[in-house]
Amino acid sequence: MAGTFAHLRFSACARAPAELVARLQGFAKGRLTERAVARLEWPPVHGLSADDWALAGCGPSDFGLTPADASDELLRRTRDERLSASASLTRWPLDAWHGLLVDFDIPPGADGYPAISGAFHWYLWIVDSACHHAALIEYPTSSIGHDLRWPEWLAAFVADAAMVFECECIEGSEGMFDPR
Predict the structure, then answer these.
(1) Which long-range contacts (CB under 8 A, 24 or more apart) does 175-179 make?
(2) Does residue 68 contact residue 11 with C-beta atoms inside 8 Å?
(3) What structural domains and CATH numbers belong to the chain?
(4) pLDDT in tens, the chain (180 residues)
C-alpha cells in the first residue's frame, strides 16, 4: 500500500534542548500522542564509534556530515517507550553525535480530516551550539496526499509548528512512498 509523507527541516535556533522539547510538548497537546523516544547515534566512522570521536573532539561535520544527512536508514537507535521526551534529555544528553527522536501518533482530525491516523517523527541535534530540528509526517495511504484538503492541512500544521518553535521551515518535501 502506498503512503504519503512530508519531510520538514526548520531553521537552527539558539534555544536549549529542554526548551525545544517543552515547546514540542505544547505543540503536541491536543493534536499528537507521544508514543516513544529514541536516542539517535551516528554509526561508526572510520572504525571509531560516535562516543570515541566525541572524546577525541571531532564532530560529524569534520567528516562532512550534517543533520540533513541523518536518515533513518543510517542512524542507530536506542528506543524507550516508557521514557518521556523531557526525561530523555537527562538520560541521553545531546551533542553533535547524539540526537533525539520523538515519535508521535497523529489521531484522525477532529473535523473529519484526515480521517485516518498518521505518524509524526521529530528529530533534534546540537551542532555548533545551535539546535537543529526536523520532522517527518507519515500517513499509510496515498489518498491523503491526493485529497484537495492536504495542502491546506499541511500548510497550517507547518505554520503552527513554526510559530511554536519561533523559527521557519527552511526546507520541505512531500510525496508518496510504496513500502513494497
Answers:
(1) 175/4, 175/5, 175/145, 176/2, 176/3, 176/4, 176/5, 176/142, 176/145, 177/2, 177/3, 177/4, 177/5, 178/1, 178/2, 178/3, 179/1, 179/3
(2) no
(3) 3-177 (3.30.530)
(4) 467 888 888 888 878 888 989 999 999 998 899 999 998 888 888 888 888 988 888 888 888 877 666 666 566 778 888 888 888 988 888 888 888 999 999 998 877 788 888 899 998 888 777 888 888 898 887 778 778 888 888 899 999 999 998 888 887 777 665 544
Contacts of 43 by beta carbon, 8 Å cutoff, 6+ apart? 50, 74, 75, 76
DSSP string, the chain: --EEEEEEEEPPB---HHHHHHHHHHHHTTT-EEEEEEEEEPPPBTTB-HHHHHHTT--GGGGT--GGG--TTT-EEEEESSS-HHHHHHHS---SSEEEEEEEEEPPPTTS-S-S-EEEEEEEEEETTEEEEEEEEEES-THHHHSTTHHHHHHHHHHHHHHHHTS-EEEEEEEEE---
